[in-house]
Amino acid sequence: MARMKKVFMAIILLASALTADAAVFTIDLSKPRQTIRHFGASDAWSMQFIGCWQDEAEQRKIADWLFSTEVDAQGKPLGIGLSVWRFNMGAGSEEQGRESQIQRGTRTECFLTGDGTYDWTKQAGQRKFLRMAKERGVPHFLAFLNSPPVWFTQNGLATNTGRGGTLNLRDDCYDDFARFMATSLKGIEAHDGIHFDYICPVNEPDGHWNWQGPKQEGSPATNREIARLVRETSKAFEQQGVTTQILVNESSDLRCLLGIYRTTWERGNTISTFFSNDSTATYLGDTPRVPRLIVGHSYWTNTPVPYMRKIREQLRDTVARYGLKFWQTELCIMQNDEEIGGGGGFDFSMKTALYVARVIHHDLVYADAESWSWWRAVGGDYKDGLIRVFSDDNMRTGGRAVDSRLMWALGNYSRFVRPGAVRYEVLQPDDPYGVMASAYLNADGTWAVVAINYSQTARDFPLATSDGKSHTWRAYRTSDVDGETLKPVEPLPLLPPRSITTFVSK
Predict the structure, then answer these.
(1) Prior bond to 209 cis, omega within 30?
(2) CA-CA distance, 465 to 26, in Å (whole number)?
(3) Which residues are CB-neighbours of 70 under 8 A, at least 6 positions away?
(4) How far apart are CA 339 and CA 361, in angstroms?
(5) pLDDT in tens, 4-27
(6) How far is CA 433 from the centre of its chain?
(7) Phi, psi angle pair for 194, to nearest 5°
(8) pTM for the full model?
(9) Which of 23, 241, 404, 477 is deepest in the core (most CB within 10 A)?
(10) In the chain, what is the straight-line distance between the N-terminal and C-terminal CA atoms, in Å?
(11) Which are the contacts of 149, defined by CB distance < 8 A and separation ≥ 6?
(12) What are 207-244's pLDDT values in tens digits?
């Protein structure tokens, strides 16, 4: 009898251990969080060249990878279905050539000419990809500017060249710059049929590097300068009937949104500066066309891992206190991302893909981001593109595009979590080196659950909803296994090592 009792207890302990190992990932229907607006990437700076290639088959391949929501005969997605496309509205450094002091690959054209007229043949390659995105169903478009047009800047250039921390815009040209944006948005809509939902007049104005070098277009700006420019832009949009929403602030670092980070009071504390009633000189909360929304970039805050979560929770709580929403609009790999070797050298594998998926998870789950975008859609031998182009002349006349696991990893979110989806909390602690899961209820009533297995071993993933209803799931996996790029797989309650799987309810 004693022996039987010991055997019985051993069975109970074993069952308990198995139950603990297979803890159920339960979607808590009582805890809805943010509404997801979109996932995206930008056209900078590659599309100005790729959009003018003679090889239209290669252009279509790239556009399908980025924008398509179609599937092949086996049900495998043809692309990652981005739902917002960021357009870099140029400042005119390309027309200046070498005198721009900007490297060739990052110069841009400008619609405005020196005599004050507009040339609607400019930015042709980028505009072709705007049209290709719309043809493939991309529902939202966002324009951003790195610099005012060179005709309006203080130094006659689209780069700051060490001027200091103020906006490179002449004091008498704020209204001119605003009218340029309004006219450009209307012109693109008239000529290309693209309506821009959003525009951000400044990009990373609080970068601690102050845009001292001539590498690319860009300018710092103080909060007072930004507030003045946004008000002028709002006025110009109202006068010209432009309904595009004006975004602030595309901050370079989440720490700049919350406080002062490696800068001065003039360019820090972005959230309170623009949306506190006490900030009378810079308050934008009652400005027409300006939503109660703060936008920023997740650079530099992704390591160490505990800090990545902590600062996002702080951002979430601060944003909620001011009655705002948050969008993450730009990220690529930087030198401080040491876990994957920094930004140098393109990586086709799951190493970078999983690292970025973990950042996406933290931005969505702990910062309540409503929108998430990668930086460059297409790049070269650096970890800043979703797609790698091999070219003999830096993409200027042609090249060969190759996809990456990073692109398809983003697709585990963008392809299945569609605009209007609501995120719900998942009742299971995250393990940033193991399993992380997030759940979304799409507007059509289907669930999308994204499960990341960061570890080197397979992990159980029993999935349920808190109402106890039974669901039938389809599963799509991205891993280093050959062919597993959003590949339809059997929805077994097991996550292979180093993989990302999206479960979609039928």
Answers:
(1) no
(2) 5
(3) 64, 77, 78, 79
(4) 17
(5) 334 333 333 333 333 345 689 999
(6) 23
(7) -105, 120
(8) 0.95
(9) 477
(10) 51
(11) 91, 92, 110, 112, 158, 177, 180
(12) 877 667 668 999 999 999 999 999 999 999 999 999 99
